[in-house]
């Protein structure tokens, strides 16, 4: 299998600095207070200012960086790839500071509202109940309860309106057309942006160069099959030229878009094979999680991702008819057919 190329392997912007990666496109790195310690934001020249793609988490450190940047960078609008707080967190705050419109898909805007408000089954207790159903121990469940709605902390100000983006919509930003590519699995209606003239894809979290995108099942749709949606979605990137410069939300910009799709397919195929090899006897998602993640995940934030993704792989294999679901005493287990 081919390897990825990293055009900026020896240089990257410091946190809060910008670096040009193509004509009229800037790379802006922001710090994060997590194990994944950064998020990449992108700025596209537009008229006499900049179209901002993603915003960073609501965090005083990032606000301070933005306060300095806004002295030299006029923002014309903001496009948000998806509802996760490191991407949309400061959208409301930036709108307050600059008056710029928010552009995103309806699925992502509504998801942000639902998670922030804890509407329906988009609240912590529903997630805890789903994890209990999948065998998670009381100590872990109590840790999630104590943690509360951290989504609201990372995204406390929601813009009261937005401009809707659609799949395959072409929007003019500055001197170039950018096509919206909506993907599924990581989020509800995740936006990537492709410019054929520049041969650039702003991939968001759909294509990351060195880690696999988290693909979770959420409590509002516990029998969902997001892994299938994700694998179907990334096939669309095969339509783009192999020499496309991919600008991801985490990690370095890279070239080798088809290669990365191949790698992700192999990664999830291998993970499924691990589960099939272990689930000879009925096991819960909690019991199977350590086989998918070969490190001790102590952090509650990361454990939430791992649990949601383990369930996603089990639902995927059940949908394929390769695992059966066994419900007994309020707990679900999975076993090879």
Q: Which sequence of SSEs, written as H and E, runs from N to C?
A: EEEEHEHHEHHHHEEEEEHEEHHHEE
Q: Helix fraction?
A: 25-40%
Share of β-strand residues: 15-25%
Low-confidence stretches: none
Largest sheet: 7 strands, mixed
Q: What general form does the structure show?
A: globular
Provide the CATH superfamily.
Ribonuclease Z/Hydroxyacylglutathione hydrolase-like
User: Looking at the chains present, what oligomeric state does this protein adopt?
Assistant: single chain
Total of helices:
11
Number of domains: 1
Attribute tags:
337 residues; alpha/beta; Metallo-beta-lactamase, Chain A
Gist of the model:
The chain has helices at 60-69, 85-88, 91-98, 106-117, 124-133, 138-147, 150-154, 226-234, 257-278, 285-292, 300-319; strands at 18-22, 25-31, 38-46, 49-53, 75-79, 102-104, 163-164, 170-173, 176-183, 190-195, 200-204, 245-248, 254-255, 323-328, 331-336.
């Amino acid at each position: 299998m081919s390897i990825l190329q990293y055009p900026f392997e020896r240089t990257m912007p410091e946190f809060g600095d910008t670096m040009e990666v193509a004509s009229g496109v800037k790379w802006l790195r922001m710090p994060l207070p997590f194990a994944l310690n950064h998020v990449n934001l992108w700025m596209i020249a537009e008229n006499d200012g900049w179209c901002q793609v993603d915003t960073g988490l609501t965090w005083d450190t990032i606000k301070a960086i933005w306060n300095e940047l806004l002295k030299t960078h006029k923002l014309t609008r903001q496009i948000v790839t998806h509802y996760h707080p490191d991407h949309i967190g400061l959208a409301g705050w930036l709108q307050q500071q600059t008056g710029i419109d928010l552009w995103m898909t309806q699925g992502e805007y509504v998801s942000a509202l639902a998670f922030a408000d804890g509407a329906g089954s988009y609240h912590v207790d529903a997630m805890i109940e789903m994890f209990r159903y999948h065998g998670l121990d009381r100590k872990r469940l109590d840790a999630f309860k104590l943690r509360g709605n951290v989504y609201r902390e990372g995204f406390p100000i929601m813009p009261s309106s937005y401009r809707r983006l659609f799949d395959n919509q072409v929007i003019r930003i500055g001197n170039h057309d950018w096509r919206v590519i909506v993907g599924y699995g990581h989020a509800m209606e995740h936006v990537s942006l492709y410019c054929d003239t520049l041969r650039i894809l702003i991939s968001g979290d759909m294509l990351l160069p060195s880690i696999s995108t988290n693909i979770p099942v959420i409590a509002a749709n516990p029998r969902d099959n997001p892994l299938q949606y994700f694998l179907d979605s990334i096939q669309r990137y095969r339509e783009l030229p192999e020499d496309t410069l991919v600008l991801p939300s985490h990690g370095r910009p890279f070239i080798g878009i088809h290669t990365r799709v191949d790698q992700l397919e192999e990664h999830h195929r291998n993970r499924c094979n691990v589960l099939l090899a272990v689930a000879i006897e009925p096991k819960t998602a909690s019991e199977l999680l350590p086989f998918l993640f070969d490190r001790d995940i102590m952090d509650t934030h990361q454990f939430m991702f791992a649990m949601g993704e383990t369930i996603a792989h089990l639902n995927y294999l059940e949908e394929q008819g390769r695992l059966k679901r066994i419900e007994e005493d309020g707990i679900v287990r999975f076993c090879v057919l």
